[in-house]
Fold this sequence. Notes:
Largest sheet: 8 strands, antiparallel
Number of strands: 12
Number of helices: 3
Strand content: 25-35%
Helix content: 10-25%
Number of domains: 2
CATH class of the largest domain: Mainly Beta
Shape: elongated
Order of helices and strands: HEEHEEEEEEEHEEE
Radius of gyration: 39 Å
Amino acid sequence: MSAFHAERDLVPARPAPAPPVHHDDTEARIRNLSERAAQVQAEVVAWVKTLVSAGVYAILIVTFGFQVARVEGMSMAPTLEDQDRLIVNKLIYRIGEPRRGDIVMLYYPVDPAKSFVKRVIAEEGDKVRIVDGRVYVNDVPVPDNYVLPEFRSRDDYAEQVVQPGYYFVMGDHRNNSSDSRHWGLVPKKYIIGKVQLRWWPVPTARMF
């Protein structure tokens, strides 16, 4: 008896089924990304608002309150040295008047594009004169221990009455200062503010 070998049909293997897609996970990732993007955007907007606010405040402070200034020259030595950094109070003279002894920042009357730092020596209505370098206000010698002996001048200045709304100013380095002795009185509108603080160099920082 002959054997009969029946051939079996070859059936191609079926590919493995794709893993199921969980739509909930995809939506969650998209939602998380959207929330993160919104959070970053909010943080950026907050930073921009902060920077803009700080800029506005800085402008207001500089315009109406205080100003940072740098000393150039030695006319106020030894009280102030070349390259000292100062904080100038611009508000104080909007509500008050300069007083004798105040160190002030002012526009140079001959050229208002320039600014100087000087000390107020005499106010409106005062009589001021200088005899051999000694300053008299209303016939009383001005206490000036801040002037070093080697910085004293030996000049004379005829007596003058300070006009209303004006001030007589001088540098502490009397023999190296361009001031009211040379270019006259300073109108109050040219006085920018009072030197309130020397903040640099830090070791010599002080209030005035």
